[in-house]
Amino acid sequence: MEFDDDDQRDCLEQNDCCKKSSYVSLQTKYANHHSSSSSVVSTDSTVVKAQKLDKHWLKDSNSRLWSLKQTIGRGSTGKVHLAECQASAERELVAIKSIPHGYSGIEQDTANVIRERARNEAAILSLLSHPSICSLRDVVHTPYHTHLFLEYIDGGQLLDYIIFHGRLKEKVARKLARQIASALEYCHKNKIVHRNLKLENILVTKAGDIKIIDFCCASVFSHNSLLSQFCGSGYFASPEFLKAQSYVGPEADVWSFGVVLYTLVCGMVPFDDHSMVGLHRKIKSGSVKVPNFVSTSKTSSVAC
């Protein structure tokens, strides 16, 4: 049985997915869809109304004091602040993802889902150690928030990188793709699936290396059973999600990686439409057209 239109909107996190037909119009289309789309958990405006941090500093589990600086990110579950350690002789920075426990104007069930995702992300990240995955340094629980102390990445989203550079040269695209593939292979070998791989959840450091972030939708999987939770972002969601089919796990990441790879080498997403129904129809068909300017070697990689 397939989703109807309302089910598709409910089951997919669409508040910050990448929407573009070419890198020239990438930013404009992204902004338009971002303002009109919905989220399965909450919207950024809801997060802004959540309980504010009651202090401008935090102590980690080792009682070291961290000073909260500017906000460097916002997501469906909370804000991310840059923080500096006050007890270190050398400058030490982390990114602190703060997930509020309470919200004004939202249902308790929704708040419980957000808290569960925070616990899930902390548990998953504690199992992972890979150079292309943002590492977890510490977890601190306060009366109003759960704080994830994460590795600070001195760069920006892959989305912004493509908006700025356009379609990438083959050498650069190959380097980034190999790092993403290495991280996914590592996760899958350790029976973990990300389930929300997209341009916004892939960071590029100033040195030009990849860091995958946001494991709140991640899950442990087994080849002896199937997963049935549908998550991810519309333009990167696999056909299994849209058709409400149970899945093992890795195939969802592989599909999303294929969309990312296509965007790297083509400067546009492989599936695009003016309506969500039309977009989902194209994704389910799996039919992809590769532009003529893409080399034969690239075409083989994208087609796979």
Largest β sheet strand count, sense and barrel closure? 6 strands, antiparallel
Query: How many separate helices?
Result: 10
Distance between the termini: 27 Å
Strand content: 15-25%
Strand order of the largest sheet: 1-2-3-4-6-5
**Quick one: CATH class of the largest domain?**
Mainly Alpha
Can you tell me the residue ranges where pLDDT is under 50 for at least 5 consecutive residues? 1-25, 27-52
* CATH topology heading of the largest domain: Transferase(Phosphotransferase), domain 1
> What helical percentage do the residues reach?
25-40%
Order of helices and strands: HHHEEEEHEEEHHEEEEHHHH
Shape label: globular
CATH structural architecture of the largest domain: Orthogonal Bundle
In short:
This protein has 304 residues and is of the alpha+beta class.
Keywords:
single chain; 304 residues; alpha+beta; Transferase(Phosphotransferase), domain 1; Phosphorylase Kinase, domain 1; 2 domains; six-stranded antiparallel beta sheet; 36% helix; 18% strand; disordered N terminus; Kinase-like_dom_sf; kinase; transferase; Protein_kinase_ATP_BS; Prot_kinase_dom
